[in-house]
Amino acid sequence: MSSREAILTRIRAAQGRSGAPSPAERAAVATYINSHAQGPRPQSDREPVARFSERALALTTTLDRVASVAHVPLAVARYLDQNQLSRHAVCWPELSALEWQAAGIHVEAREAQGADLVGITGAFCAIAETGTLMLLSGPRTPATTSLLPETHIAVLPTNRIVRGMEDAWQLLRAEGGEKFMPRAVNFISGPSRTADIEQTLVLGAHGPYRVHVVLVEG
Fold first, then answer.
1. pLDDT per residue over 112-150, tens digit each?
2. pLDDT tens for residues 180-191?
3. Which backbone phi and psi does 76 adopt, to 5 degrees?
4. Could you tell me the CA-to-CA distances from 185 to 92, 136, 161 in Å, in that order?
5. Which distant-in-sequence residues (6+ apart) come within 8 Å of 101 by Cβ?
6. What is the pLDDT of residue 201?
7. SS3 127
8. Which residues pair with residue 107 across a beta bridge?
9. Which DSSP helix (H) or strand (E) runs through 175?
10. Tens of pLDDT along 57-80?
């Protein structure tokens, strides 16, 4: 039994129930979620990609846009050179097959460690309303790649940009299902920042100093 199963079993026992949830219980939960009315939402007629770009730039996220995923390595190399950053990086396994070496970048597909300066990830989706990236944790999508390095570069297909937070969760439920829900969902809205000390804004306090998004036409 996993730790998760052990915790849920103890909760069910405290509620006077035993065993795994029955099909009727699962169906009741699914019905409730699907029928639950959404709360009030800001109205926006803006096209999602344009709105995401506007909000992301306001958060000091930088953007680039390429015609296909094959152009990503050159776009990343251009960004690294423009900012005089290291051409050594770690990435998610799903991106390891890109032509990094041809672009002059040394990339390793593994979890980030303390000495890694550049992390390259994908994203489950992005939220246009707030300019936010939504990343799911997992064996092939380690959270450290976006959290530990000073520079986080995210590769985002434009067809994965949704209008609002509610749409992002709905997409996760539709594509993930109960069995494939991640242990953690991370929302990234620009570089890490804090103004806790004397209301002075400091970047990189709890994560990357820089967030750069390469938008791929989808």
1. 999 999 999 999 999 999 999 999 999 999 999 999 999
2. 778 899 999 999
3. -65, -45
4. 16, 5, 16
5. none
6. 58
7. strand
8. 89
9. helix 165-176
10. 999 999 999 999 999 999 999 999
Tokens 């804004």 sit on residue:
201
To the nearest 10°, report the CA torsion of 172, 55, 121, 212: 180
**pLDDT tens, residue by residue, 92-117:** 999 999 999 999 999 999 999 999 99
Please give the sequence-ordered ranges of beta strands (E in DSSP) within 27-177, or none if there are none: 62-66, 88-91, 106-109, 118-121, 125-127, 132-136, 151-157, 161-162
Above 70 in pLDDT, residue 156? yes
Angstrom distance (rounded) from CA 114 to CA 69: 28
Phi, psi of 171 (to 5 degrees): -65, -40
Element housing 2 (H / E): none
Tokens of 208: 């990357």
Give the tokens for residue 46. Answer: 């803006």
Q: Are 37 and 187 in contact (CB under 8 A)?
A: no
Q: Do residues 27 and 158 lie in contact, with contact meaning Cβ atoms separated by under 8 Å?
A: no
| 89 within 8 A of 150, measured Cβ to Cβ | no
Residue 88 has phi, psi (to 5 degrees) of -105, 135
Are β-strands 125-127 and 161-162 bridged in parallel, bridged antiparallel, or unpaired? parallel
Report helix, strand and coil shares of the chain as percent, to nearest 5. 35, 20, 40
